[in-house]
Design brief:
Number of domains: 1
Radius of gyration: 19 Å
Number of helices: 12
Number of strands: 2
Strand order of the largest sheet: 1-2
């Protein structure tokens, strides 16, 4: 029984790594830009389709194609921020909500029109590969995702705290007026933060391809979970998103094993609601952060 529980724990940990990866970009965008990006999942969808076609047409492995896909999605994020987000920055928050939601619909239906609704998957030498240590089994692609997620969180920590650009992002997240008075180009910072956030989503799509199918709605499905993770972790807090992703992964794994797979989603949404009542600022959020402009 101990080995079974340990295996369920490992499964939850690896699943949580997936959820954390798709949530970090979303929380970074909100923390710096104060934009709730409902189109975030569609950047993941573009990443996974890009990796699929590079593999299908050119035979480029997803673990190599990320070198091309991530910069392309990053550049598309810059274009999105310039053309859609920046003109609405001083508008009511509802305008940005509707704009990003509309972008989500356009991208999703564009993918449906272009590639149809058929799920498309690939088979690599490592898609079903397992690492066995004693009685424990680790799915290799999910383990890679967890390692990459940890590396991203550590990298973002050092970037935000050790570099001028990162400190500029932090300053704008805390008080954009004061940052602007100190000579920070806040619009450049917004553009950079948004591009990094969606670029990470493109990377997530590439890493998910070996174990998930490419389909127009995959981004929407992950986006719902990402919003749960971001709110639980504390909106704008990268470490909070990481730990909240792991928590959701554990909840899904243990509830699926000990209760019922059909109740997995219902259970973590129930925990989500209860947690909001008890601690509305999130796991690592600050009370009143939304009002103060802090993360």
């Amino acid at each position: 029984m101990v080995s079974i529980i340990a295996q369920v724990f490992i499964s939850g940990l690896l699943l949580g790594g997936v959820y954390a990866l798709v949530s970090i970009g979303l929380t970074l965008i909100f923390g710096v830009c104060r934009v709730i990006n409902f189109a975030q999942g569609e950047y993941l969808m573009l990443g996974i389709y890009g990796a699929f076609w590079l593999f299908h047409l050119l035979g480029i492995d997803p673990y190599i194609s990320f070198l091309l896909i991530t910069p392309l999605v990053f550049a598309f994020g810059i274009l999105t921020q310039k053309m859609i987000i920046r003109p609405l920055l001083n508008s009511p928050a509802s305008a940005l909500v509707f704009a990003t939601f509309g972008l989500s619909i356009v991208l999703q239906n564009g993918a449906l029109l272009t590639w149809k609704s058929d799920p498309r998957s690939i088979q690599t030498s490592y898609s079903n590969h397992m690492i066995v240590i004693g009685d424990l089994v680790f799915n290799t692609p999910r383990l890679v995702i967890l390692v990459v997620t940890v590396a991203i969180v550590i990298g973002l920590y050092f970037y935000l705290n050790r570099t001028y650009g990162g400190k500029a992002l932090t300053a704008v997240a805390q008080d954009r007026v004061a940052a602007q008075l100190m000579g920070v180009d806040i619009y450049k910072v917004y553009r950079l933060a948004f591009a990094i956030g969606v670029g990470l989503e493109g990377l997530a799509g590439v890493l998910l391809l070996p174990i998930y199918s490419a389909e127009p709605t995959i981004g929407f499905n992950f986006c719902i979970i990402a919003f749960v993770v971001v709110v639980l972790g504390g909106m704008g807090n990268v470490f909070g998103a990481f730990f909240a992703g792991l928590i959701i992964g554990f909840v899904e794994a243990f509830s699926g094993f000990f209760i019922s797979p059909q109740l997995q989603g219902a259970l973590y949404f129930l925990i989500f609601v209860v947690f909001l009542i008890i601690r509305p600022q999130g796991l690592m959020g600050i009370i009143g952060a939304e009002e103060m402009g802090l993360k």
